[in-house]
Predict the structure.
Amino acid sequence: MKHRFEAIPNPSCRFEIWDNENDEPVVHHDRLLTFASAKLAARIADFLNEGRSHRRRAGAAKWRVADRDVDRGG
């Protein structure tokens, strides 16, 4: 089963949270959720997928970033 939220790389070498249900990036308080590290973005995506139970299972996050074809201009 695919998770609703995933961390994906974007063309600006950052990682954003993608909403698979709505097929669009996640925006919170009029700001796109992007992060400099894959680890942090994956942690946030895991938190959104797991909800409140995430806090009870400290350290249980899986640091996976979705595989997407991203043209890095190289």
Remarks:
- Confidence is low (pLDDT under 50) at residues 58-63.
- The CA atoms of residues 47 and 54 lie 6 Å apart.
